[in-house]
Design brief:
The chain is of the alpha/beta class and 636 residues long. Helices cover 45% and strands 19% of the residues. α3 runs antiparallel to α4 and α9 packs antiparallel against α10.
């Protein structure tokens, strides 16, 4: 055992956060601490490090245990460079090295055994502390966390909040801590830095406890999960995905045991009522004592909703929703993406990934028309109605109340309907009268999603939609998007989310290079890893070809033949005709449907039969046109 929490209780302002939490961390364990926002994860960390004292219970640690904490907010006072701040984790090594330099100077004149022995001891300690390699280790970690050599000389006071957090991470990873406590370590990292951190932690022999909303990260870095629920801790073996399966099995078993015990209690209480004053008084009293001594199985804690992001049905777009052709995006002096080519069909979901600053949000704004393309074309299909979720929540008006903010997309809706809808996003009772400026990040995220969903857009463009949501809310959003019958374009660092939602990836890389890949994040990542491994083992020529390829290759279709210029023009002409004909027929179909729903048509059988025949004919025509469109577009 390294440390143990035993029956820890902690309250704030009369609210009990921890109600008898018990768990321990052992050598070699890599623990994920999970639970809803407000469940007490950060409080548990602060108690472990001594920043908070428990109201009751015990914290037991082995003697001399060194704990290293990565807080959610790290600050540096300035006056030192990034490189110096990282190396400050090796203060003990620096002190040894400084004393060795002093002794080396002293040994020029003093050859006594005392001096020589002290120098030998220091030299041994220096080697044990990896004194000859610490600078290289520090620089490797700075690189891994996204600090280029040009940034090493920056004053820490000039770093952004996210950069300070990353530098705090570097210093912690370099420290001599026996156990690492990581509170949301991926918050300010792009995907490449997160993947580097995953690999670092997996190869490290240090035990750690990590709090994270990144489920993919938890899957790859933990071998044990501790869940905080209803103020108590429950431990599960395995990573996050294994925890989900085991948790469901445990809940089912607990529910069965609870129901069985309740049936026994009910039957026993009934016997006691009937016989307490009768001939079987002694038996009744005995059973009453038995009930009083029975270890009661707790009722299964209700699954606190993460929100019910049920997306309303939306108007059907044309089959071809979006096409980009040789699209170049960015700004005059800064091209962020070139030769971006993809087509998106109705109902598909596109995921956009890449390091920070490579152009992901710029692509969204270019598709929305807020930023002009530098070159190429953007072709939207028919009946497209686009809704946008901005990661900085800039669409929210801080001065509005929650219900007023939702009314902006539904001016004619009554208060009852709006309050009922907001309740699905966990805005209960007087919460709907809170000012937007007073909401937490998670609450603002839920309100922005409520507005977007209520507006019934058939195209959702989402910029980091899971950023402000805890895990249950993310899962609720994923379930809703999986059932959504519109089209989705999303930028996200949440790889678990991407795996569940998207079927195609647009990946930005440094140098304005963009890849397009058919598949989810894991499939793309595995393909790219194998491609780079093959390029590295087969020499420079293959590596050079890899850099020049604009997108992931697809297998050749042996049945496909090249089209002549005339054939291609004829197909394109027919596609344009179909895309014009389908909306016209769909409008006509809606008119027939309206006529069939008129109150007076039921009494006019001839008119109703005629309308029904027209309805069936239009539906068949539209179906045939969609089938033809899909067939001939494949030829291109």
């Amino acid at each position: 055992m390294l440390f143990r929490l035993a029956d820890i209780r902690k309250s704030f302002g009369g609210t009990e956060i921890l109600r008898g939490v018990s768990f321990q961390v052992n050598p070699g364990e890599k623990v994920g601490l999970v639970g809803r926002n407000g469940a007490g994860k950060t409080t548990a960390f602060r108690i472990i490090t001594g920043q908070e004292s428990p109201d009751s219970g015990d914290l037991v640690k082995i003697n001399g245990l060194r704990l290293g904490l990565l807080d959610q907010h790290v600050d540096f006072g300035g006056g030192e460079t990034v490189h110096t701040a990282a190396l400050s984790a090796f203060k003990e090594v620096h002190d040894i090295e400084a004393r060795m330099r002093e002794l080396e100077k002293l040994m020029e004149t003093d050859h006594s055994a005392t001096v020589l022995d002290e120098y030998a001891d220091l030299q041994s300690a220096f080697e044990q502390a990896d004194g000859f390699t610490y600078a290289a280790r520090a620089e490797a970690i700075l690189f891994g966390l996204g600090f280029t050599t040009e940034m090493w000389s920056m004053d820490t006071a000039k770093l952004s909040g996210g950069q300070k957090n990353r530098l705090g991470m570097a210093r912690l990873l370099l420290s001599a801590s026996d156990v690492l406590l990581l509170d949301e370590p991926t918050n300010h990292l792009d995907v490449s830095a997160v993947e580097w951190l995953e690999e670092f932690l997996r190869e490290s022999d240090k035990p750690y406890v990590v709090v994270s909303h990144d489920r993919y990260f938890l899957d790859r870095t933990t071998n044990r999960i501790v869940e905080l629920e209803s103020g108590k801790a429950v431990t599960y073996k395995g990573n996050y995905s294994e925890y989900l399966k085991e948790r469901e099995l445990r809940r089912e078993q607990q529910q069965r045991e609870y129901e069985n015990q309740q049936a026994v209690i009910s039957k026993t209480q009934d016997f006691i009522r009937k016989n307490l004053a009768g001939q079987k008084t002694k038996q009744a009293k005995s059973r009453r004592i038995m009930l009083e001594r029975m270890d009661k199985i707790e009722a299964l804690p209700s699954e606190k909703s993460g929100g019910q992001f049920g997306l309303k049905r939306v108007e059907r777009t044309g089959n071809n929703v979006l096409t980009t052709d040789k699209l170049k995006i960015g700004y005059r002096e800064n091209v962020l993406g070139d030769n971006i080519n993809f087509s998106l069909l109705r109902g598909e979901a596109l995921g956009i990934i890449g390091p920070n600053g490579t152009g992901k949000t710029t692509l969204l704004k270019t598709l929305l028309g807020d930023v002009a393309p530098l070159d190429g074309e953007i072709l939207w299909g028919t009946k497209v109605n686009v809704g946008y979720y901005a990661q900085n929540l800039e669409e929210l008006e801080p001065r509005n109340e929650v219900i007023q903010e939702l009314r902006r997309v539904a001016p004619m809706a009554d208060n009852g309907e709006l309050r009922s809808f907001l309740a699905r996003f966990l805005f209960m009772g007087d919460d709907v009268f809170k000012k937007v400026s007073d909401l937490s990040g998670g609450e603002k995220g839920r309100l922005a999603l409520a507005k977007l969903i209520y507006s019934r857009k058939n195209i959702l463009i989402l910029d980091e939609p899971t950023n402000h949501l805890d895990i249950p809310a993310r899962e609720a959003l994923e379930d809703a998007l999986a059932e959504y019958d519109g089209t989705i374009i999303t930028v996200s660092h949440d790889r678990f989310f991407l795996d569940k939602i998207v079927s195609r990836i647009v990946a930005f890389e440094v140098g304005a290079k963009v890849r397009v890949y058919n598949g989810n994040y894991t499939e793309y990542h595995d393909w790219l890893t194998e491609k780079r491994r093959s390029a590295a083992t087969s020499g420079g020529n293959d590596a050079r070809r890899d850099r020049l390829e604009p997108e992931a290759p697809t297998e050749a279709d042996p049945t496909r033949t090249e089209l002549s210029k005339n054939q291609r023009e004829q197909i394109e002409k027919r596609i344009s005709a179909i895309e014009a004909e389908i909306p016209r027929l769909e409008d006509e179909l809606r008119e027939v449907q309206t006529e069939m729903g008129a109150p007076d048509i039921a009494a006019d059988f001839t008119r109703l039969r005629k309308a029904q025949g027209r309805h069936d004919k239009l539906e068949a025509q539209i179906k045939d046109l969609y089938a033809e469109w899909e067939t001939i577009t494949e030829k291109l």
